[in-house]
UniProtKB/TrEMBL annotation:
It comes from Talaromyces proteolyticus. InterPro entries: DIOX_N, IPNS-like_FE2OG_OXY, IPNS-like_sf, Iron_ascorbate_oxido_reductase, Oxoglu/Fe-dep_dioxygenase_dom. Belongs to the iron/ascorbate-dependent oxidoreductase family. This is Thymine dioxygenase. GO terms for molecular function: dioxygenase activity; metal ion binding. The keyword Cytoplasm does not apply. The keyword Manganese does not apply. Pfam families: 2OG-FeII_Oxy (PF03171), DIOX_N (PF14226). Residues 180-297 form the Fe2OG dioxygenase domain. Keywords: Dioxygenase, Iron, Metal-binding, Oxidoreductase. One of its GO terms (biological process) is small molecule biosynthetic process.
């Protein structure tokens, strides 16, 4: 079993003030100490999550030619549509001088995954790249609904975080997220010979932090997600799949916003954990599906130290920055 705390969210939507406060405090304690938490008894029905994974499987089962009808636009400015294995390279790098040479080096190990990114249709800066409707009828309708259902659940989590941090206004964080700047990502890690992961010739997803405000992650039963142990840097603990739980993690923006009170923790995806991870002579790993939902404030939102996270003895550590500027700084290294 892993050491990632589990928070039962059912009391959050009750009228019992002290039970609500308890949920909020538990959530913030986990976000402070580990940066990752399983949330159970949340607002998203099991059937909805099953359906999301069904659609994801159907999407990635389309032919390469069909998936290429909604390609991720070239460059880093628009993060929507289909990314084929090897296109994206996750890294911790920040944009600096001599980027080209550094990006070349980073790309030497391929991330063996494919993804499809979806946002709000009203976000004109990040136009969705839908596949033609007849290829997968109702896919767009479902994903649009799922996107907004996820935002509803995320809003509850943000309210609980605000209360747990001790902000006067429960809506403080929600008010800064209209929902139109979030990103829903379908991820598929195809089967791969275990040896190529072991020798690090390829990776599923190397260690990184998210630059969201927070992320909700859904995963299938394959396993492989690992979280850096805050008490032992460099050691990773498995985020064992818990059916229909939301794995919530704090992103870099919320860490910065909270003056490092909440922790944005390194995580990665490696070999499946389960005993049935390999098949055949070439030791093919199981394929894996996951669905992260990255929450981001609106681009003009100024990320400046939350009032409850600073005092005379603990001054603000970071300059205020808009979400847009921060995102540009990070995203330009990714594609
Ligand atoms: O696939 C996963 O479980 C993790 C994905 C992830 O960390 C990310 O997309 O940032
Ligand atoms: Fe991540």
């Amino acid at each position: 079993m892993s050491n990632i705390p589990i928070v039962d969210f059912s009391a959050w939507n009750s009228s019992d003030t002290s039970a609500r406060l308890r949920v909020a405090k538990e959530l913030v304690k986990a976000s402070k100490e580990v940066g990752f938490v399983y949330i159970v008894n949340h607002a998203l029905p099991d059937a909805l999550l099953d359906e999301a994974f069904d659609w994801s499987r159907r999407f990635f089962a389309l032919s390469q030619e069909d998936k290429f009808k909604a390609p991720h636009p070239k460059g880093w400015a628009v993060h929507r549509g289909y990314s084929w294995p090897g296109l994206e390279k996750v890294s911790q790098a920040m944009s600096e001088e001599n980027d080209e040479e550094r990006i070349e080096k980073l790309r030497e190990v391929t991330d063996y995954k494919e993804s499809y990114d979806i946002g709000s249709d009203e976000n004109k800066d990040q136009p969705n790249q839908w596949i033609p409707e007849d290829l997968l009828p109702e896919f767009r309708v479902f994903m649009t609904r799922f996107y907004w259902e996820c935002f509803g659940a995320a809003s509850d989590i943000m309210r609980a975080l605000a209360v747990g941090i001790g902000l006067d206004d429960e809506e403080h964080l929600v008010k800064r997220h209209s929902g139109h700047n979030n990103q829903l990502r379908l991820l598929h890690y195809p089967p791969i010979p275990a040896g190529t992961l072991e020798s690090e010739a390829m990776s599923r997803m190397p260690a990184h932090t998210d630059w969201s405000s927070m992320t909700m992650l859904f995963q299938d039963d394959c396993g492989g997600l690992e979280v850096e142990d805050p008490s032992q840097p460099g050691t990773f603990i498995p985020a064992t799949p818990v059916k229909n739980a939301i794995i919530m993690n704090v992103g870099d923006l919320l860490q910065r916003w909270s003056n490092d009170y909440l922790r944005s923790t390194n995580h990665r995806v490696g070999l499946p954990r389960l005993s049935d991870r390999f098949t055949g002579a070439s030791r093919m790993t199981r394929e894996r599906y996951s669905i992260p939902y990255f929450l981001a404030p609106d681009p003009t939102t100024l990320i400046e130290c939350l009032p409850a996270c600073t005092n005379r003895d603990n001054p603000a550590k970071y300059e205020p920055i808009t979400q847009g500027d921060y995102n540009r700084m990070r995203a330009s290294m990714q594609y």
